[in-house]
Amino acid sequence: MLSKFKRNKHQQHLAQLPKISQSVDDVTFFYAPAQFRDTLLEKIASATHRICIIALYLEQDEGGSAILRALYDAKRLRPELDVRVLVDWHRGQRGRIGAAASNTNADWYCRMAQENPGVDVPVYGVPVNTREALGVLHFKGFIIDDSVLYSGASLNDVYLHQLDKYRYDRYHLVRNARMTDVMFEWVDQNLIQGRGVNRLDDPHRPKSPEIKNDIRVLRQELRDATFHFQGDADNEQLAVTPLVGLGKSSLLNKTIFHLMPCTEHKLTICTPYFNLPAVLVRNIIQLLRDGKKVEIIVGDKTANDFFIPEDQPFKIIGALPYLYEINLRRFLSRLQYYVNTDQLVVRLWKDEDNSYHLKGMWVDDEWMLLTGNNLNPRAWRLDLENAILIHDPRQELAAQRDRELELIRTHTTAVRHYRDLQSIADYPVKVRKLIRRLRRIRIDRLISRIL
């Protein structure tokens, strides 16, 4: 049983977080990627004073092009608009995994700048570490005037459901001038003006090795950078708390850690890649021992964005969905007793050939965490992450919250036994051989930390 002292410690952390009062009428949930795309385009077109797009990447495809064109159109129509785009420095200068590096997103940004003289839409590349594998810009949010359109999605065809396939995420519009100012000022001060941050739409930008010392300084500064603001809400009203974090000891990580044990009845978690940090697994086990319910919704391995069908050429990255499934099978085998008693429910999401990218937490009917954080060791240690924590003690958002969870569960199947998941022996030959080779040299543990 969780001691009263420990429970109070966790509750105290949440109670002491600064909170910004939030009107219930200014929170809107969207339930599908096409709705998200249409809303983003509408908000860009109607913006009056600022647009700040922050994403891991803005892709050179039909969906990404529609967004970048809309930004140029808005700036051309209203030259006084403050328009900025921030993406990851390294991701912006390479092609997709397995694709040639020629004609990258950065090359496209340069062409768009040249084709639109006198219309300035700067695209900043943020280098969170000297190598992409060791940390990326995973900060999320599209700040438009006094609203934040928040999603874990990046900007391309599949996230925006531009063509036939979609990648499912969460989508929320929060109108709150105070919170938006806090986020915008932090991005301006710590990212746009940060050491080593350069424009990707400039063909004369420096090479990564030339700025490696600046990148190291930036990373250290980001570890210490947090949102600074005074709360104006108490613990009895609807409120929002923006959070940001880089590194194991960040305020965001601490809040996620403290949030879980505050569960009185039920904790629900979404993550696309089942690879929870050990400290969060321990939290879940303690909740189950204390008689609480835990629901975990993850993507089926075939709904993982790294999954490669057997009829396509195999690449090493294609082993990742299988490694995540191995993690899940091992987790369930330890906790099968709680699955049998319906205390622990694990759901696998699968909808034809579409993919799953949801992340977040719901604690009872009181707390909701909107985040791009995958709740894995990479997010915990390497990437720059952020979140919006919503406190809803009077359950004013209950209808929208319940609708969102109902739709998330629609394409899911509950796992009744760990043996319902495939074992390594059932995997395709190439996957099986690779995983066994990785295990022999114990590199699978390193992979689990950075992917």
From TrEMBL:
Keywords: Lipid biosynthesis, Lipid metabolism, Phospholipid biosynthesis, Phospholipid metabolism, Repeat, Transferase. One of its GO terms (cellular component) is cytosol. Coiled coil: none annotated. GO terms for biological process: cardiolipin biosynthetic process. Its EC number is 2.7.8.8. It is an enzyme of class 2 (transferase). GO terms for molecular function: CDP-diacylglycerol-glycerol-3-phosphate 3-phosphatidyltransferase activity; CDP-diacylglycerol-serine O-phosphatidyltransferase activity. InterPro entries: PGS1 (IPR016270), PLD-like_dom (IPR025202), PLipase_D/transphosphatidylase (IPR001736). Pfam families: PLDc, PLDc_2. Residues 133-159, 352-379 form the PLD phosphodiesterase domain. Belongs to the CDP-alcohol phosphatidyltransferase class-II family. This is CDP-diacylglycerol--serine O-phosphatidyltransferase. It comes from Silvania confinis. The gene is pssA.
